[in-house]
Amino acid sequence: MTSLQTLNKFRIPALLAVLVVFIVFPLVFSNPAVTSIAIFTLIFAAAGTAWNIFSGYTGYIALGHAAYFGIGCYTIAILCQDWHIQGGWGPFWTVPIAGVLAALVAIPTGAIALRTRKHTFIVITIAIFFIAQLMAYNLRGLTGGSQGLSLPFPLWDPGVYNLPFYYVILAILLVALAASWWVRNSKFGLGLLAIRDDEDRARGLGVKTVPMKLTAFVISAFFVGMCGAVWAYFLGSIYPPFAFDALFDVTIALMAFMGGLGTLSGPIIGAVILIPAQQYFTLYYGQNGYYLILYGALFLVVILLLPQGIVPSVSRLWVKVFTPREAPAMPPAPQMPASGESPGSGGSQGFKTKNGANGKPPTSGAATYPAPQTPATQQR
Amino acid sequence: MSMLEAHGVSKSYGGIRALDACSISVEQGSITGLIGPNGSGKTTLFNVMTGYEKVDTGTVTFNGKPITNSTPDRVFDLGVGRTFQLTRIFARLTVMENMHVAAQRKGLGSLFARWSATHEQQRALDLLEFVGISRLKDLPAGQLSYGQRKLLEFAFILIAEPQVILLDEPAGGINPTLIAQLGDRIRTLNRQGVTFLVVEHNMEFVMGLCDKVMVMRRGSLLAEGAPQEVRANPEVLEAYLGV
After folding, report:
1. How far is B88 from chain A (nearest CA, A)?
2. How many CA atoms lie within 13 Å of B201's alpha carbon, on the beta-carbon side?
3. Contact check, Cβ <8 Å, B184/A202
C-alpha cells in the first residue's frame, strides 16, 4: 500500500515530464525521417488508446477497428476533393468530421457485433472490416476503387513540414487519453470494467450493459476515425488495402497487450516500442514484411512472459520490491466473533486484536457488533 | 401482504421439467426459507423470478406488478436483489469498486460523473463495516477468501437498497462463526424492513432464521409452514430421504 502511494506521488511530475518530452521532441530531433516515425508512433498511440477505451475496459477484443480507420482516411480525402480544400491547415478541419462519420458507422455495425460475445464477437468485427474494405474497392464513384485517392499537398517548408502533423496528432492523442482517463474514473467506466469481469452479473446489478458497450465502441471508433484522417493527409494518397489494413488491428491489439490491456498508459508504451521498431525494419529491410516476423515473435514473448502487459507487471514488481517486509501484503482473513456468543474459542480471537489496540479488558457478551479491528500496520 | 409471487410457473430444459406449475408467495417483511433436495428447482425458481431465465408458462409478480420474463437489470431496479450459489463478484475490481457497481444512479449526466461520489463512498464503507470486511476495501476482490466473497456479494446488493433479497445458499461452505454473523446481519436488516427469501441446505441455519419455510420437490411446492410444522411433516422427510 505505502509503496503504491509513493508511486502515485511521482505520477503527476512524471506525466508532465513525459508531456514535455513529447512536445519538444520534434524540435530537438528535427530530422524528417525521425519525425515521420514519431508521427506514425503517435497515430498508433492515439488509435491504441481509443481502442483500449472499448476493448481494454470491456474485455471485448475488437479486431475490426481498421474499418473506422479507413472510413476516416476516405472521409478526409473525399471531403478535400469535393469541397476543393487546398493543402495547408484546411484539411485538418475535416479531421473531426472524419471522426464523427466513423462514429456514425460504428453505431449500427457495433450494435450488430455486440449482439455476440467472446470469439464470435471477434469474428464478426473482422467480417465487418472486410465488408468495409470490399466497399472501398468497389464503390468506384466514391472511392476511386483500387486507383485510390490523393489528398492535397501542403506547401510547407521541408524543414518544418512534419511539425503541423506532429502537433495535431499529439493533440488528438491527448484528447483520447483524457477521454480514456475520464471514462476510467466515471460510473460508466466502472460499468465497463464490471462487464469485463462478469457481464451477466453486472446486468443483474442494474448496469445497462447494452447501451454502455455500444457507447464505448462508438467513442473508440470516433478517435480511430480521426487518426485515420491524419494518417491519410500525412501520406498524401490512399488505397483500399492500406487504408483498410488488417495489420492495423493486429498492431493496436499487440500494442495494448504488450503495454497492458485496460491500463491508461499501456497502449502508448506499446506504440512507443512497436512502431519505431516496425518503421526501422521497413526502412532497412525494405517492404519485405520482416517486421511481421518481429510481431509474431513479440506476441509470443508477451504472452509467455508478460501475460498482463508491461504496466501491470512493472507496478506489481514495484510493490514487491518496495513494500516493507513486516507489513503483510494481504491481511489475514477476518475472524469475527459472533455477537451474543459466549466468549469461547470464537470470541477470544477477536479480543486479541482489541487488547493490542487499546489495552482494555474484553467485555464479554456485548450486545453491539464488535467492529473489525484493523492492526495499525495495515491502516497506513 | 405478499410481495413476490410466482403463479403456476413451469420451466423445462429439454426433457427435464425443472419447474412444474410452481406457485410460491413471499410475505412482505418475512424471512422465508426455501428448501428441498438437490435438483428440486430452487435455483431455477430464483432465476425465473430475477429475470435470468424465461418461463415457459406462468407469471411472476412483484408488489402486484408483473415481472414475468423481465430482464435482470429491470428486476434489480425495481428492488429485487439476489446472490448466487457460486458467488459472483468482480474479481479484478477492488472490493470498493465492487460496492459501487451496484450503486444505482438516474440520468445520463450522473453516469459520466466519477464513480467514487462521496455519499456513495460513505455508504459503501458503512456496508462493508456492517458485514465486517471494510479493512479489505482496497484489495482486488479476487484475493478474498470464499466466505469473504459471500459477504462482499451480500454487501454490494445492499447498496442499492432492495426491498427483497434472494439469497442462494448464503451459508454454503463458510465457517460456523461467519454463518452466525451472517444470520445476525439478516435479522438486523429484516427488522429494518427488508424481506428475505433464502435457499439453504443448512437446516439448523434455516430453522433458526426463518419465520416460514417452503419445501420444493420435483419443481413444485410440496409443503409450507412454520419451521416446526415443516420439520414434522412426513412428506418432507420422505422427499429428503427419498423413501
Report:
1. 7
2. 11
3. no
Residue A353 CA to residue A378 CA, distance in Å, equals 13
Residues of A in Cβ contact (< 8 Å) with B84: 201
Q: Which pTM value belongs to this model?
A: 0.83
Round to whole Å and give the CA distance between A50 and A266. 12
Residue B242: the pLDDT is 61
Interface contact B64, partner A, CB < 8 A? no
Considering the domain boundaries, does residue B53 fall inside one?
Answer: yes
CA-based nearest residue to A252, from A41, A88, A101:
A41
Which of B86, B93, B181 to mutate to probe the A interface, most A CBs <10 Å?
Answer: B181
What's the CA gap between B46 and A76, in Å, rounded? 54
A193/B50 touch (CB, cutoff 8 Å), yes or no = no
Interface check for B99 against chain A (CB to CB < 8 A): the answer is no
The C-alpha cell at A199 is 457481464
**Least confident piece of the model among A173-177, A358-362, B74-78, B82-86:** A358-362
Average pLDDT of each block of 10 consecutive residues along chain A (380 residues)? 63 86 88 90 95 94 93 94 86 94 95 90 94 90 84 85 92 94 90 92 88 94 96 92 89 89 89 87 74 80 81 80 58 40 34 36 36 36
Query: In chain B, pLDDT over 70 holds for what percent of residues?
Result: 97
> What integer is the mean pLDDT of B109-130?
81
Per-residue pLDDT tens over the stretch B47-56 = 998 888 888 8
Whether B191 maps to a domain, the answer reads yes
Does any domain span residue B147? no
Q: Which of B39, B210, B115 is nearest to A183 (CA)?
A: B115
- Coil, helix or strand for A194? helix
B7-11, B36-40, B112-116, B120-124: the lowest-pLDDT one: B112-116
What pLDDT was estimated at residue A250?
87
Nearest to A338 among B51, B97, B177 (CB): B177
- Do B135 and A197 make contact, defined as CB atoms within 8 angstroms? no
CATH number, domain containing residue B27: 3.40.50.300
For chain A, the straight-line distance linking the first and the last C-alpha, in angstroms and rounded, comes to: 8
Residue of B76, B97, B111 to mutate, testing the A interface (most A Cβ within 10 Å of its Cβ): B111
Residues of A with CB under 8 A from a CB of B: 1, 182, 185-191, 193-194, 196-198, 200-209, 330-331, 333-341, 346, 369, 371-372, 374, 378
Amino acid letter, residue B226: A
ipTM at complex level: 0.86
Taking the C-alpha atoms of residue B106 and residue B122, their distance in angstroms, rounded to an integer, is 19
Q: A217: which 3 cell numbers?
A: 465502441
Which residues, including other chains, have CB under 8 Å from residue A305's CB and lie 6 or more apart? Answer: none
Q: Look up residue A10 and give its amino acid.
A: F
Give B-chain residues touching A1 at CB under 8 angstroms: 138
Of A191, A331, A372, the CB nearest to B132: A372
Give the SS3 label for residue B65. Answer: strand
B135 inside 8 A of chain A by CB: yes
Q: Which of chain B's residues have a Cβ under 8 Å away from the Cβ of A208?
A: 73
Into how many domains does chain B fold? 1
CA-based radius of gyration for chain A: 26
Phi and psi at B68, nearest 5°, equal -60, 135
- Whether B196 is covered by a domain: the verdict is yes
